[in-house]
Amino acid sequence: VELVQKMVDGITKIIAMEEELAAKNAGGGEVAAVGFKLPEIEPGFDAWLQGQLAASPADVKDTDEFRYLTFSELPPFTDLHKSLMRKTMTPELFAKLKDVKTSKGYTLSNGMQAGVLRPHLGVGFTAGDEECFEVFKEVIYPIVQGWHKFDPATQEHKSDLDPSKLTFSDEQAALFSKYVKSTRVRAARNISGYSLPAGTSKEDRLAVEEVLKQAFGGLPDELKGTYYPLGDLTPEQEDALQAGGFLFQKPGPMQLLGAAGAGRDWPSGRGIFHNESKTVLCWCNEEDQCRIIAMENGGDVKGVFERFCSLSHAIKGAAEANGKKLMESPNLGFLGTCPSNLGTGLRASVMIVLPELNKDPHKLEEICAGFDLQPRGSSGEHSAAVGAKWDISNKQRIGFSEVELVQKMIDGVGKLIALEEELAAAAAGGAAPAKTPSAPAAGSSSYELPKIGDEAFDGWLTSQLAASPADVKDTDDFRYLTFSEIPPFTELHKSLMRKNLTPELFAQLKDIKSSKGYTLSNSIQAGVLRPHLGVGITCGDEECFELFKDILYPVVKGWHGFDPATQTHKSDLDPTKLTFPEDIASKFGTYVKSTRIRAARNIAGFSLPAGASVEDRLAVEGVLKEAFASLPEPLQGKYYPLGGLTSAQEDELQAGGFLFQKPGPMQLLGAAGAGRGWPDGRGIFHNDAKTVLCWCNEEDQCRIIAMENGGDVKGVFERFCSLSHAIKGAAEANGKKLMESPNLGFLGTCPSNLGTGLRASVMIVLPELNKDPHKLEEICAGFDLQPRGSSGEHS
Asked: Pairing mode, if any, of strands 271-275 and 290-297?
């Protein structure tokens, strides 16, 4: 009740702010500028940052709302700092470079600032001009090698923008036309002699804009179009650009660009160009001076690449007409703001529908990896694809030419289409293939360890797998490892489990086993095999929370800022206690497009999915089916066993966003064993009105979701509580109870979802607050709310 009330109260205040801003703008009033604020990271580090800001001299690049810091010493990085910059920056290197400055005035501190202020960044260093790549190469080269596995000190990069060299036969074109919904090729171009956006002056930014306008004016007829300065857009132009996905926003402070200073003097000198048919698009002075994008519906990859090359040549020609050249280097390729986009900086992608391969998303990831391709589902990497529509792109950026990377994408996607057709033919013939084919060399279908990228660690893992005894929970495609010693974690391992697991604690817990057979090794397996995970530990049954509390409690404290050793948690599922008067309900009705509340419930006495036996999984399903059958009339509906879905049912569930997929091996659940025996014992329930939804045996035994279009938060919460009570009643009717603890609340597989485990959210339209997304983040933080844009947090 308290969490839903906080959401209601916070959203009410946000709506009031939105209306105040709209009234000011309607009356011609100006909204006050936001002053520069340091983030809050850790108390000791925050105090150090404040001292550094106070002591930093003025920088000619400073603005009213942004300050460049000058670090007097190597930052005392926290465990939260993850970047390659942090890994590379030694006290000796900092001392050597801290007083170095380019002729444009960009310093080591300027380059490091984003990575210091935003610990979550992976690269953590930006370039402010072309000279940075020489004066700071002792920082940049190791970052490039760490990110791209390409050593610019010993290797050279080549460029090739001749589309006639592409091999794209009529037969390939016909297949792409059948399967590919859209094609896009993009990269960045920057003009030598002018600063990059993170270090630019007003004068350089405006000069870049002028050169680019000349380039756009010199394009051939089919590429001619209109340039829209971002600061002069009419509401109609803004709506049209936003509807096409062409509009870019001021970077928020949690993003690399915002923290690096690329959002200063917004929106001056920024703009958008596109041709009349909207098959070429350019962004001026966003992350780089110019992002060039060629695209179209359908699968004509060669035609799209031809337009991309024409754009690149036009910008190069305009630069040379002004006595300049493009920023380019023999060993780094095309240069730009972030070291992650050097070399070609090119991403060639297709949006493709693959219904058969979509049935096993983690297998699709493995196949793509064999072709150096990167698949993205509906929510980015390692996610499922709604409607079986996948974004497939080249993985590499540097060390290969543009032609080579586009060709690799064509060849790889061609092989994916062949596999898709083979699977579809087998399915149509009534005989599903035993295993989805591997690629490119078909291998064993038995369990395979991931490659972490650290040779010694990968060797250690292989030996641990070989020495691990059989586990009764093992399946044909999944093995539980038994670690004989504390893992020799690499610098890639980021989880709270890794942070808290000492050799002494490992020795204390390694031989302990729950009555259901779940061990410490089972629990930490996901965090060992998947270094990117933040939590890194799972629970296989209720006993784990007591047996392994010496590791779980510190993880909970680190993730939630809540100490279960000294604090207690309370639950309150009485929706009558919510305050949601008619005037607030009316405001929500105006601004809120949809409302959703979700959490998990698990039944004591049965294992959790990461440790479940076949018998427990089926028993849980049986109890849940009883619960669904006992729901009151408005909530009554149908249960769909995942393994018994017809094609029509699957399409319908997928279209509604109700279908869940087998977890991929890069995900917490896949690495923890929650995908064993798929799809047995899993299913989906929803009522006729599709306002309640339950997932059986996914991350937890039951995920319960209540939702509807509009802003009736109280009504949605009432349905959520009814679902929870029904599952509790069904458990008790079977002599069971829900997994619950006085200090941890509702228990579940992942420690990140303990307590209420509840997420109450609204989808809300805020046109005025949307003009300054990072200010909206600050406002929400004050109300203990978390905003997510179209691409997740910080977007």
From this structure: unpaired
Taking CB atoms within 8 Å and a gap of at least 24, the contacts of 259-262 are 259/113, 259/114, 259/117, 259/118, 259/121, 260/110, 260/113, 260/114, 260/126, 260/198, 260/337, 261/61, 261/66, 261/68, 261/110, 261/113, 261/198, 261/199, 262/126, 262/197, 262/198, 262/286, 262/287, 262/337
Inter-residue contact 536 to 671 (CB < 8 Å): no
Q: How far is CA 409 from CA 299, 375, 414, in A?
A: 12, 11, 8
The 10 Å Cβ neighbour count of residue 729 is: 13
Whether 184 contacts 307, CB under 8 Å: no
Q: List the single range of 33-42, 117-126, 128-137, 504-513 with lowest mean pLDDT.
A: 33-42
Q: Rounded CA gap, 51 and 40, in Å?
A: 14
Cα–Cα distance, 399 to 342 (Å, whole number): 10
> Per residue in 125-150, is it b (16+ CB within 10 Å) or e — as a string?
bbbbbbbbbebbbebbbbbbbbbbeb
Residue 598 forms beta bridges with which residues? 705, 759
CB neighbour list of residue 428: distance below 8 Å, 6 or more residues apart: none
Has residue 665 got a pLDDT over 80? no
- Copy the structure tokens of residue 633: 């009339």
Specify whether the CB–CB gap between 573 and 758 falls below 8 A: no
Rounded Cα gap, residues 62 and 81, in angstroms: 25
Q: What's the CA dihedral at 707, 708, 709, 712 to 10 degrees?
A: -100
Strand order in the sheet with 592-601: 637-641, 683-687, 692-696, 702-709, 592-601, 759-764
8 Å CB contact between 359 and 396: no
Indicate the residue type of 502. Answer: T
**What are the backbone dihedrals phi and psi of residue 284, each rounded to the nearest 5 degrees, phi first?**
-100, 120
Contact 110, 127 (CB under 8 A): no
> Which residues contact residue 322 at a Cβ distance below 8 angstroms, ignoring those fewer than 6 apart?
211, 214
First to last CA, the chain: 29
Q: Residue 580 corresponds to which tokens in the numbers above?
A: 């949601």
CB burial of residue 174 (10 Å; 0-12, 13-18, 19+): exposed
* 161 touches 312 (CB < 8 A): yes
Q: How confident is the model at residue 29 (pLDDT cuts 50, 70, 90)?
A: very low
Residue 221: partners with Cβ closer than 8 Å, 6 or more residues away: none
Distance CA 259, CA 395 (A): 26
| Residue 412, token pair as written in the block | 């790889």
Sequence-distant (6+) residues with CB within 8 A of 329 are 133, 157, 335
pLDDT tens per residue, range 394-441: 999 999 999 999 999 999 999 999 989 988 888 777 544 444 433 333
Tens digits of residue pLDDT in 590-644: 999 999 999 999 999 999 999 999 999 999 999 999 999 988 888 999 999 999 9
Rounded to whole angstroms, the Cα distance separating 506 from 527 reads 14
Contact status, residue 186 vs residue 291, Cβ threshold 8 Å:
yes
pLDDT digits (tens, 9 = 90+) for 288-320: 999 999 999 999 999 999 999 999 999 999 899
Question: Mean pLDDT throughout 160-174?
Answer: 95
Count how many Cα atoms sit within 13 Å of the Cα of residue 513 in the half-sphere of its side chain. 8
Helix (H) or strand (E) holding 388: none
| pLDDT one-digit tens code per residue, 242-258 | 888 898 888 876 678 88
Which residues 6+ apart lie within 8 Å of 198 measured at CB?
110, 114, 126, 127, 128, 257, 260, 261, 262, 337
Q: Using an 8 Å Cβ cutoff, are 129 and 288 in contact? A: no
Place of tokens 């005037």: 583
